[in-house]
Amino acid sequence: MTEADSPRARPDVRQLPDLAGRVLGGTVVYTNDDAFADVHNLLSPGPATHDPTAFGHRGKIYDGWETRRRRTPGADVAIIRLAAPAVVHGVNIDTSFFKGNYPPAASVHATTMLGYPSAEELLQAPWVPLIEHAPLQGDSENVIPVSGGPRLVTHVRLTIHPDGGVARFRVHGEVVPDPRILGGRVDLAATVHGARLAACSNMFYSSPANVLSPGRATVMSDGWETSRRRDDGNDWLVVRLAAPGLLHHAIIDTTRFLGNAPGWARLSDAESGAELLPLTRLQPDTEHWFPIASDAVVSLVRLDIHPDGGISRLRLHGAVAPTHHDAVVRRWTSLLGPDISVDPTEFFS
Q: Which of 108, 174, 212, 324 has a CA 20 to 30 Å removed from the CA of 100?
């Protein structure tokens, strides 16, 4: 992979995973006000929808977060726990359909609290600024990059000045592999463990990054689907594993793909070309389990589907190579604040 392919070199932060979204496991843990529209709407997958005729007992129904009109000084806040500790590279404060009631400005702060802190503990935590009082436009996406040195973030606080409505809040960043959860056999292709998509031949219908998401697909669009090929080639994607590892087995899941699943699939080491799984027949709407007969350490895995079609999930289970344990630990600890201590016996346990 070239420097141009690295997350920091990408011009659009929206190409990075949304670590606040409910798809990966983000959640709202606190808000001071959601009188008009539920704060949890902020993290819903997909774009916001709008029915101009929909009204409820609270007033206009919005697919977003909306606070009451403030009559005193101050601002409204929402605290979100990210799906995994990560380095944040940018946010998208989407005010779609909020025209006369959007906040004119917003700030975003971050904190690092490992474990499962309560809302009360988070309110007392030390917060550092990621974005300071940025102006917002109504009924539009407000994509704002984060500058400054990298640090590991577990929670973010969105502050709107002084009040109003936001449809969606996306926090785009890079999950840093956590040595506390990489012990034994794990899914080294999971986004929440630090894996990410490195390359893809075709993403016409839906994003290939979907295949690295947790859980089972609920609809066909919650997977990766290519356009129909009219040549002799085939489609493929490449996954950078959370850490170099020894693979034990793979799961290629075609759930929800009935008339458009690939006919066959193959797995290989994207760097050496060595075969990990020979060309193997697939069935529609099926979770396939395949052993990996290789003792080589791999970092980049290529999935070839033949000739085209869609899969919902790709799992690559294995163990982090012992020769790379120290590098994973060094990166993790270097991004923690100096006031955060972690028991080293928890690493790869």
A: 108
Name which of 75, 184, 187 is nearest 132 in CA terms: 75
Amino acid letter, 301:
V
Between the CA of residue 263 and those of 67, 233, 252, 285, 293, what are the distances in Å?
A: 51, 13, 12, 12, 22
Q: Which residue has the tokens 């956590």?
A: 178
List b or e across 181-215, with b for residues whose CB sees 16 or more CB atoms inside 10 angstroms: bbeeebbbbbbbbbbbbbebbbbeebbbbbbbbee
**H/E element, 119:** helix 119-123
pLDDT tens sequence across 58-114: 888 889 999 999 999 999 999 999 999 999 999 999 999 999 999 999 999 999 999
Q: What is the DSSP string of 231-298?
A: SS--EEEEEEEEEEEEEEEEEEE-TT-SSS--SEEEEEETTT--EEEEEEE--TT-EEEEE------E
Handedness of CA 338, 82, 186, 236 (dihedral sign): negative
Q: What percent of the chain has pLDDT over 70?
A: 97
Provide the whole-model pTM: 0.91
CA nearest neighbour of 21 among 66, 82, 62? 82
| CA pair distance 229, 309, nearest whole angstrom | 9
CA neighbor of 146 nearest in space, from 273, 276, 263, 7? 7
pLDDT of residue 12: 84
Tokens of 20: 């606040």
Q: Residues 268-317: pLDDT tens digits?
A: 999 999 999 999 999 999 999 999 989 999 999 999 999 999 999 999 99
Strands 76-94 and 168-175: antiparallel
Both tokens of residue 259?
């008339």
Give the β-pairing of 76-94 and 153-161: antiparallel
Report pLDDT digits (tens) over 10-59: 458 888 999 999 999 999 999 999 999 999 999 999 999 998 888 888 88
Tokens of 107: 């700030």
Residue 32: name the closest of 182, 159, 200 by CA: 159
Rg (C-alpha) for the chain, rounded Å, is: 21
